[in-house]
Each structure stands twice: as C-alpha cells, then as structure tokens.
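haha ok so turns out i had the wrong file open the whole time. this is the CORRECT one, sorry everyone. sequence first:
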Amino acid sequence: MTVFALALACRRDAPRPPGAGPTAPVTDPTGAPRIGSADADDEQPLPDGYCHPATVISTGRGGAIIDACFDPQTNQTDLVGQRVDADAMTVGSRVRLRRIPGNVVSLAAAVVDGAPRVAWIAHVGDGAERSDEFTDRGRGHREVAVQALSPTLALVGAPVPVHRYGVAARADSERRGWARSRVEIAAGPEHAVLLLTTDAEEPCPGGRQRCASWSVFSVEADGTARRVRHESSASASFEPQSLIRVGDELAYVRGADAVRSTLYVHSVRLGSSGVSTMPSAMFDPLPNWLSGSIAWTGSAVVTLGEERAIDEGVARLAVRVTSLSGPMPTRPRPSDEPDTVRWPLVTDRSWRCVRRHPVLRIAWRGGAVELDPTTPGASFELSRWLSPAVAGIPVRARAPRWLPPMAWMGRALLAIDGFDRLRRWTCPRDGVAPTE
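then structure:
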C-alpha cells in the first residue's frame, strides 16, 4: 500500500458525484502551443512593479521571482525574472526571459535538479485581452508550455509545447467549465516535471451538459510530453490545486457539488518505471466545502478547508490530520446529519519563529499541528496556509480568492502583496512572530 493510500485508510465511504470517476490515461496531448522566439526587444522598458500572474520560488539558498507582463497592443506576454538571495533581497535587475504569444493567465514554477522550471497557460486568439488570472473570458485557445531555466535564470533550450485546447465562451447556464485557467508544476521522477492543468470543457457522461475537465501531464527530460491522467466534473466548486509531494506520490485536491460539496484527493504515483495514475480517493462529504488545501508534514497529511453550514452565513475553517503512525490526531465532531462528517474547527492559525525560521501552527480543540517549510520531505504551498490577514499582507482589490506568492528563501520569507510590492520577514529570535 502506498504512503498516500495509508494516509487515507481511515476515511468513511461516501457517494461519488457524477463524472468524478477515474478515466483511462490519454497517452498523447492534442495540439501544441505556438511558442515565440527567445529574442525580445531589449529597448522596450519593463513595466514598473511586478506584473500578474507572478510566482516566487526558493532554491533553499535564495530563489527567484517570475512574473508575466501582458501587452494588449501586441497581444504578447513578456516572461520576466528576478534573482533573490537567501535574505530575500533582490540580486541584480529584472530581466526579460522570453516573449510569449497571447496573454499568460496562469504561471507556476518549481525547482528541479537545482534549477527553475516555469509552466504557463496562455490565452491566444479571440478575447485574450479580456482574460486575466482571476477570470478566463472569450473564445480562442489555451496553450500550455514549460520552460527550463538555469540557476542564473538563463534560458535552457526552447519551451516545451505540452497541450493546446479550445475554450468556448461561457455564455449559457449549461456551461460548467472553470472560471479561470490554472496550471501547477512539481518535480517528477528522473528529471521530469508534472503539470496539473485545467483542460477543455467536454460533454458530460450521459448528458447534454458540458463538464469541466483537467489533466496531468508528464514532461520528460528529453522534452516528451504525455498525458497521464484526465478527469472531469459536472459541477466544479473549485479547480484542482495544491500539487504537493507525499512520499512517492504527488497529491492534489479539488471540489465538486453534486448533492453536497465534497473534497476529493487525487494522487499520481512516481515510480522508478515512470509516472502512473492512481485511483481517486475521497474525504468525507462536508456541506458547502468552499475551498481546500493539502499539506504533507513529512509524517502526516493535513487538509484545511472552508466549511459553510447550510444554516449559517459565515464560513469556518475545518481541519483534518491523518497520521501514518499512531492514533488519528483529529476526530469528527458531532453532526445532526448521520451521513455527514464534520471535522474539527480551527481555533487558531498563527506563525512564530522556531530555530530562526517561521513555523505555521494550526490548532483545534484538543490538538494542534505545525507546518515547517524546512522539514526534510515536507511539502506544502505557503500561501495556501499562511493567511494574508495573519501575515498582514494587503490583498488584491476585487480578488477575494487571491493568494500572495511567497516562499522561504533560506534566511527570510519573501512575498508579493496586493499592491505588487515585495514584503520580507525574518526571525531575529525564537518564540516570537516573524518581523517585517
């Protein structure tokens, strides 16, 4: 039994919503992005401030800020990079890395073999200028690609075309596609990377409605891209997200509304013989589950989500911790509905300095768990666990679901706030909150 299967062994069975079952892997991606030249007009100045979408990545002893600056006049996007040292201080100036056709609406990066890999989704064609990282509008096509960089942010080869698909305008009520396009990237086996990406809408099984879909692609070291997983959902409450490493697997979550909102957890096996898809796992159904995050502490799976009870208007945070050894740290709380499991409510979410670095603490009545970004093997996305309110980060206007890009650089935490400003925190002494 795999690590991730062990972590879910204590779950209670629950009904599956339509269209959520695993499908046979598709071996070849359809279509290919039209990648622009690496040459750019160096005389054209870069925009002031950081553009969006943006991402921050860490190498453990520094890192980089990658952002995408769209020019509606030329319908092109400049991929821009900025090196950062371990103290979260910028090194040198921002540099234009590559010019990409269309409007980049989603951007992600990960460190593979000590160097960054950057993935993006670009909206090309009709309506590209009306799309952004929050809302994907218009027709046209979406192009998914990945670019390798050196530790100094120099281009390594050409971008790898991964996937190209068409998107119809969501004008009628029967369209069930994602509100936005999203891509995430993680290191795979044997120098490969895996991309989790929203995909084209498709006919729902046994119905005339359109279903949202997503895919996982494996991009090998030689540039070969293949689809290793494809799924669809008749009603998508939130898109697939939180691609993390759990032992020898990659795991991510997504939500669906069938009878009630359910948090689904999917995993992809990373074996010595390559990447293989795994059956879908499922946590117990929670009414009006609005969002979800997943983390791996190195010994336990932690999930956090917003729960809004039917008779209550305010969302509350619920937490579930599944340990691979010993008793379950969290126990369901009482529920009036016999077929509904309600996990403990979060009573405290805070951060403090431990051994000169920040550690996040999630507490509930009767217990607590800590997420430490420096723990060997731990895997989680800081921005999904450190609330902007806890860190004092201004959010982006009219974007309630926006998450500030952030990463621990080795001696300081770096983030980009809602006003496109760099923010940094250090830990001068233990037992106190990080200092900005």
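The first strand starts at residue 54 and ends at 58.
again sry for the mixup
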